[in-house]
Write a structure and sequence with these properties.
Helix content: 25-40%
Bound molecules: arginine
CATH topology: L-arginine/glycine Amidinotransferase, Chain A
Radius of gyration: 18 Å
Strand content: 15-25%
Order of helices and strands: HHEHEEEHEEEHEEEHEHEEHEHE
Structural class: alpha/beta
Number of helices: 9
Largest sheet: 3 strands, mixed
Number of domains: 1
CATH class: Alpha Beta
Strand order of the largest sheet: 2-1-15
Shape: globular
Distance between the termini: 29 Å
CATH architecture: 5-stranded Propeller
CATH superfamily: L-arginine/glycine Amidinotransferase, Chain A
């Protein structure tokens, strides 16, 4: 499997700090150690689409669990190849969406805010991920309000950007601010295809800065678009086509962006900005309405 991952690497660029959005801040890469990226994943052993809780899901169409597994193994191998510390949580039989680990919680400064799912179909995943956080030694805060983890809560610099409209309750935004002691900025999602924030908004540089993110404006209401323009004047604004292949559901360690290969224009924009890019096809997971980022939960200690 590692071979397959290695072969699939399609580096279309290397990080060039002098061309990055925050050039001044990032010139020291070669000299300073970069903190290791640690992520949690869940092997899609029980992946299928057996219910419909987002417009991408079509339970009447057969899924290919072996293909989902093979694509996931490639993503896993790419992360290992990038030097990430990759941890695994055991998949629960009967919970086909558990592969979307990003929804399992939010972990910042060693504290995990557990997930509380909107739909009963996924309810048991919250405690399963919670048990994993506890066993792994994280401080665990049990959520009071519905939140779907990093699907809707994304850290950029010192600020949490929080989606609402379809899944996460706005009261969970205040709860996250309290638990993490960070500023939380609420963003209103309006397009049912982009029901989680991580389908419409991507963190390219976790350190923050005016060009630290990419997003699809049409997925947000006018007020949220205004907030995004103000906070990220140099953001990558993606096309409808690139968003429609879940191109924004990518994962970046700040230097290399792992993305859907179908999002071609987006990949070219990233390379142009000096990011390394690696395409990994997770087309089978897209049938459940998720992609690369959905399958990846960042563990920040
Ligand atoms: N079928 C899952 C759901 O609707 C997909 C979740 C995708 N995850 C994500 N982080 N966007 O809940």
């Amino acid at each position: 499997m590692l071979d397959r991952g290695a072969r699939s690497l399609r580096r279309t660029g290397t990080a060039r700090p002098d061309r990055a959005p925050e050039a001044g801040k990032r010139t020291g890469w070669a000299r300073h150690a970069v903190p290791m990226t640690s992520v949690l994943m869940c092997r899609p052993e029980h992946f299928t689409v057996s219910y419909r809780i987002n417009p991408w899901m079509r339970p009447e169409q057969a899924t290919d669990t072996r293909l989902a597994l093979a694509q996931w193994e490639t993503l896993h191998a790419v992360y290992r190849d990038l030097g990430f510390d990759v941890r695994l949580v055991d998949p629960l039989p009967g919970y086909p969406d558990m592969v979307y680990a990003a929804n399992g919680g939010t972990v910042i400064d060693g504290t995990a805010l557990t997930a509380r799912f909107r739909h009963t179909e996924r309810a048991a995943e919250g405690p399963a991920y919670g048990a994993w956080f506890r066993a792994a030694g994280f401080a665990v805060h049990e959520a009071r309000h519905v939140n779907e983890g990093e699907g809707d809560l994304l850290l950029v610099g010192d600020t949490v950007y929080a989606g609402t409209g379809f899944r996460t309750d706005p009261r969970a935004h205040a709860e996250a601010a309290e638990v993490f002691g960070r500023e939380v900025v609420s963003l209103q999602l309006v397009d049912p295809r982009y029901y989680h924030l991580d389908t419409a908004f991507a963190v390219l540089d976790p350190a923050g800065g005016p060009g630290a993110v990419a997003y699809l404006p049409g997925a947000f209401d006018d007020a949220s678009q205004e907030v995004l323009r103000f906070r990220f004047p140099d953001a990558v604004v993606v096309s409808d086509d690139d968003a429609a292949v879940l191109g924004l559901n990518c994962f970046s360690d700040g230097r290399t962006v792992v993305h859907a290969p179908q999002a071609e224009k987006f990949a070219a924009d990233l390379a142009e900005r000096g990011f390394g890019t690696v395409g990994v096809d997770t087309s089978e997971l897209r049938r459940g309405g998720g992609g690369i980022k959905c399958a990846t939960l960042e563990l920040r200690s």
